[in-house]
């Protein structure tokens, strides 16, 4: 994550600002504001604005005129109740805005979460930087042998080295050709006055999917939790999980009571189907149950045993 | 709009708060924050939080690291360009949250704007106050004779008096019966220990549609403009327009450059169909055009002439 | 639910139509199409159109060119997998459109589900019928003593009779005055040529919240499931649950494999928090656990014991 | 657009199906159903399902029980009225589902329209085909000199040839390396048993942005019109416009009255700001107006003169 001196100056200036406000503020999040929190090799997450706090969730749930005089632990109890019973609208009353720099193939996963506002840097209008994602050695994973959309162990030795070389060389070569086609003098590629230069909206198609892009992304707390539940999950692709985990930290700084309830009732929770519940009740009654007489498929049985921390067989 | 002493205290306490923030602030909107701006006979609009300002729109459009050093008139020019060319995402980067008290029949119009977050006071859970909307005499309008969903001139004399009496008496009587059915001692209706009391979620069905409700309503600036374009329009029902006009004032205080562009390119603008454009070109070329040879229907012709400020005939 | 002869003719004509199509059709749902399925005393649900079937969910999940040659039980397995793992987009590929007649206070609950398309009968433009909801005796419930938004046992004797009388009389009186204020000869109220008549958009405010309205409501299968999970649930208000249950039957006719997975993984399922999971594991290990040493609040403990079918104490 | 024999068989089988339905059908759209309508060099648009027709828009606007007996020209008049006055909900009552094959850099523009349902072919789960977009010579355009996000004239001679070579060679090379890294025997690249193969979710990052992807994309008619207004516009990038134009043809086959109103009131229409309207009125009154005394910026003045078909100077 190399920021230019101008970018660093802009960030420093924003952080130096001090304003008076009647709005609720969250000092722990103010401390993080505008900082570029590093993710992957060149990416980052920056919180650039926020609205609301834990109390705003409570206030909206009660449709109240002010912050009231209830004790903080009453607020915590209400927040836990709202989360446990799938209330969504009070959490929608908090809003956060991020500036994110991320590889394009991750941006394509991310954008599938539609209930958010996005402004992406336009490669139709501007020229992208020569920056692309290369996995760290421990992330250069083989295809999983038992999960069609998962990873196995990291590649080793010569294969690992060759894969990294290919990724790097192809990204550099396609970027060089992108700059040449543009013919605008970008990235130390001198412009040739004898050529016209290809339109930016076309030249970009030569870039590889690990090229970094960036966007402003704004969402409410309820939809952020939906995003984090899926993307901070162990089954998410590592590269997007890396972003989700940093964002989860910013949520903890921002709305600690909501964050705690989210960890308990969403991230650390498990949903049992009607059939699974039946098995749990039989087990609790002391009845021995095995997969064949459980009414569950082998796959469901395995998932249930893993959740209960019991041996699968 | 009668607020209780407790509510007034809550508002005063919120207004007295002073916090330090690194976020952009808008002093003109801070001055309005939390105040109950009166609308109709008992309603109000209160701005209870906001995120972003004019510069945030520009910042998102440019995906920049800070506020930059451009002159304010460059920002204004960009905002006008974005509005004129129907860019929506930069305006989505600003967010505002209102607390609104409004009659139920207006809430039902309002809620049709779906891209917003809402927490409404629950008559399933709580007891509504004895407050209902009664039109001022100049708003007690007859049905329009030429527009099936419009108003004519105000009713006069005995008819006006009788209508107002009916509205008032029916609202009071149905509320009295609501309180009696609840049997909870609400609104000075003593509870009878010999009765159980009807469930709140049922008793509420006896209230009339002019009863006041309230909600927290949060939306982004783009969707707020969509709301205001329709609801601050001369064709909107007066009662919702009264809310929209107060909200338009808060937008002016909040994002003056966006507000100016909105007035010019949306509220004060007119869209001409392909057929209407053809007529305008012929007129500008000095050709006399009348409705029968215009290719427009009578209704379209009338709408065009009104927009151009010309006699219809 | 009294339909006029014209309405019955319209429905019969629609049901009599036979068209050829290359689109997938679902005979069990075609059999229900356009019929007014009764709900409450005057309401109904009519399926007026649909798109897709069980196979369309599978087809979208696989992004395939046709229906393929897989066995039906493979499709069922994939649908169950998608539901269990919270995939939402394949279920969004099916769409259904209902025509619903319902009391206004229920319409106000319903409309909070925003991801749907709605066209409501306009009382600004047209005149509402004299039809209002009156609970059946077994639904005329007292306020719950232990749940602020729930119902207790039905009211009895004189109190029940008096409540029903008040609901009926107030609805009839306010409707009579509505018709009088309109002065359009509606509902056998003769128009008086000496009066102008109040604008429809104003007169409607005199109606009570149990007046029936109607709308076209269209949504995709994923969002319909979200609606049904909340509204067919035992904690939902009876009056909206009555609609949800009829709609659930239409879903069973339409997409039986999705319906089965929904019952198993949503309606009949339970989500255990991290803390609850810990208690279940300790119980399964044979450890006696009581609320005070469970780490759960009393309320959570009670909810957990109920889900597990164990005594609370 | 090369479809495999299996794909062609699947399409032929779907087209051969004949079902009876009570739902409205549109023969002109049935005739197109499932066909792969070619776009660009390897892309296509296929209509795979639809719901509703012109009459369904009218039916929803009137909340009626059937199709009624009104004349077709009354329906057309109502549709034009709804479009002219920005009514959106009746158009939301029609739904269409497409299967689209398109280059990734176009998919990234497209997905910014969020009010739609999408299932994309997963390169995390499956292997992409060796197919990439190469512009036809007349589309290999230079960067516009006066519009930062526009195109100028096509490149010529050696520059054109070299650009095409680079695009082709880079796409082929990065795809070859993608197949090599996968080591699954894809695209005639033999698998080496001595290597593990990189995870699919990682290998995909080496592909260029002109690689083709495909998805199911479903939306309602109102949101489809929003998409087409922006993407079938002359200012849209040619490659997405090519898709929009084919989709516009399918809309004409499907809902001809809505299509006609859309062309007249949206595609062929122009919106005049308050300031522009003032200029038009002065011109119509015979007053000579030039830019400096128009109150418009130079850019607005030029846009207005172009819309009015007058010389800019």
UniProtKB/TrEMBL annotation, chains A, B, C, D:
Gene3D superfamilies: 3.30.1360.170. DUMP binds at residues 109-112, 120-124, 204, 231. PROSITE patterns: THYX. Its EC number is 2.1.1.148. Its cofactor is FAD. GO terms for molecular function: thymidylate synthase (FAD) activity. GO terms for biological process: methylation. The keyword Hydrolase does not apply. Pathway: Pyrimidine metabolism; dTTP biosynthesis. InterPro entries: Thymidylate_synthase_ThyX, Thymidylate_synthase_ThyX_sf. Keywords: FAD, Flavoprotein, Methyltransferase, NADP, Nucleotide biosynthesis, Transferase. FAD binds at residues 89, 112-114, 120, 220-222. Binds 4 FAD per tetramer. Each FAD binding site is formed by three monomers. Pfam families: Thy1. It is an enzyme of class 2 (transferase). It catalyses: dUMP + (6R)-5,10-methylene-5,6,7,8-tetrahydrofolate + NADPH + H(+) = dTMP + (6S)-5,6,7,8-tetrahydrofolate + NADP(+). The active site is at residue 231. Belongs to the thymidylate synthase ThyX family. Catalyzes the reductive methylation of 2'-deoxyuridine-5'-monophosphate (dUMP) to 2'-deoxythymidine-5'-monophosphate (dTMP) while utilizing 5,10-methylenetetrahydrofolate (mTHF) as the methyl donor, and NADPH and FADH(2) as the reductant. Homotetramer. This is Flavin-dependent thymidylate synthase. The lineage of its organism: Bacteria, Pseudomonadati, Pseudomonadota, Alphaproteobacteria, Acetobacterales. The gene is thyX.
């Amino acid at each position: 994550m190399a920021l230019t001196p101008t970018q660093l100056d802009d960030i420093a200036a924003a952080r130096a600002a001090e304003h008076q406000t009647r709005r609720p503020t969250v000092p722990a999040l103010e401390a993080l504001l505008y900082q570029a929190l590093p993710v992957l090799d060149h990416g980052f997450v920056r919180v650039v604005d926020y609205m609301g706090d834990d109390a705003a969730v409570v206030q909206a749930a009660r449709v109240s005129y002010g912050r009231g005089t209830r004790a903080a632990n009453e607020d915590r109890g209400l927040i836990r109740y709202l989360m446990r019973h799938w209330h969504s609208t009070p959490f929608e009353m908090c809003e956060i805005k991020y500036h994110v720099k991320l590889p394009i193939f991750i941006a394509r996963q991310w954008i599938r979460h539609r209930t958010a506002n996005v402004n992406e840097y336009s490669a139709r209008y501007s020229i992208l930087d020569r920056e692309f994602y290369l996995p760290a050695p421990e992330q250069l994973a083989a295809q999983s042998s038992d999960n069609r959309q998962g990873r196995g162990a990291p590649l080793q030795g010569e294969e690992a080295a060759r894969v990294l070389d290919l990724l790097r060389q192809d990204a550099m070569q396609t970027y060089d050709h992108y700059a040449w086609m543009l013919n605008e003098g970008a990235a130390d590629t001198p412009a040739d006055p004898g050529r016209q230069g290809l339109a930016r909206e076309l030249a970009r198609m030569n870039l590889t999917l690990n090229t970094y892009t960036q966007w402003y992304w704004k969402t409410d707390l309820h939809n952020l939790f939906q995003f984090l539940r899926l993307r901070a999950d162990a089954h998410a692709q590592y590269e997007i999980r890396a972003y989700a985990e940093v964002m989860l930290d910013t949520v903890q700084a921002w709305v600690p009571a909501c964050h705690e309830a989210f960890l308990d009732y969403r991230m650390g929770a498990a949903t049992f189907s009607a059939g699974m519940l039946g098995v749990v009740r039989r087990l609790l009654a002391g009845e021995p149950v095995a997969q064949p007489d459980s009414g569950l498929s082998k796959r469901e049985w395995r998932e249930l045993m893993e959740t209960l921390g019991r041996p699968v067989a």
